[in-house]
Here is the input.
Amino acid sequence: MTHPRRRATTLLGRRAVAATVPVAVAALLTAAGPATAAGPTGASGVGDPYFPLAGNGGYHVAHYDLTLRYDPATRHLDGEAVLTARATQRLTRFDLDFHGLKITALTVGHAKADYRRDGQELVVTPERALRKGEEFRVTVAYNGTPAPVTDPDGSLDGWIPTDDGAFVAGEPQGAMTWFPADNHPLDKSSYDFTITVPADRTAVANGVLLGQRTAKGRTTFRWRQSEPMAAYLATATVGKFQVKQYTTRDGLKVYDAVDPREATAAAPVLKQLPSVLEWESRLFGPYPFRAAGSIVDRAPNVGYALETQTRPVYDRAPDLSTLVHESAHQWFGDSVSLTSWKDIWLNEGFATYAEWLYAEQHGGDSAQQTFDSLYATPADDGLWEFPPGDPGSGANIFGTPVYARGAMTLHVLRTTVGDRAFFRVLRAWAAAHRYGNGTTAQFERLAERESGQDLGALFQTWLYGRGKPGGPSGS
Ligand code: TRP
Ligand code: ZN
Here is the structure.
């Protein structure tokens, strides 16, 4: 079993029916703002155990309109973010997540608002309190030299400068390094991007390219991501890219941007994207988005790829199994988002199992063979260091147990319930939580419902059991 490079270098020395979103947010936020003397305030986080300050309480962002101008030579970014939001409680004050860059103006509605910064929290006090249910607009003008954040596992995340632009990937925390956000996957929104770069560079974001215009040595790209997206899946990657655009048989708009230095290696893999998405659509149900594509950068200090929505970003030319993995995330991770970072196996276990299935159905090892060779790993191996359903901290969310033992969990589920029920479960999961969020507990219940079996012991052993699961089949 090879461990693809998308994983960080940290572990094992490898490189590596649903509530609607607002209801889910509201539910999580009932413990929100403490009513202070000044009145009700929005909480500084949504209560994520691994990232307590991620996201915010008291509102939901429907739409982000981001206008950016980046100069790779000076690494200067000018930005304006307009957030259209709705208060889920009365608010005299609320937070955004924003790290680094200088703020030059901030308004709520048409009025200037007071603000103060406290680490990643941007604490905004509007001129007058917002009513529960009120729609409001926050405009933040900002600029400076964006820098990535360092994650608990030591990897870089956010706006990561490259020799010709920037590799922009925000999982789990980095969105706040380039725009003010409600930075937790519980809050999903549509996005518009207007990005201006020197005319010899390309700026690639999510969704559909609405247009591009060159004037006075600069090109402005306009992108639209219509379907709901978590902030961490946004990108605005800039570089010298070769661009290819086409429409698939199914009417999907594909936009590929490739660093010329990676083009030879990337071409045969990117060519497979339509057939990979067709194959995944047969297994998982309809592809959730109207746009697709790939961004292949050369970003030697990154060490991973990210499933940025509609258009994954790769730090170098990907191999086919990495393309299969990031494509599978479009269903598992992007369309169906996690509710807490603790549930990360719902992303990584599923995307890894997609790689196994792809190999099995395309002349490679069977999923059973992959499972068996992993299961042969000695009990003191890092693979068994922690259970995938309870990684323990944000430092472990991209660890091998999440990917490999997460996929093993799905394989044991498959062999237990049989192929028909198993693939029904995958499709039902993607359909029931499409454009929303899901929890591990909801997945367990759905698997039991679809299979008609009691799967409590299976999930207990494989998702939560400490150490290597015992027994001949390991279940
Ligand atoms: N989600 C990515 C993938 O598996 C990996 C990833 C994103 C990552 N951010 C990371 C890995 C930070 C290590 C560190 O496709
Ligand atoms: Zn992944």
Summary: The pocket of zinc ion (ligand 2) is lined by residues 325, 329, 348, 351 (CB under 6 Å).
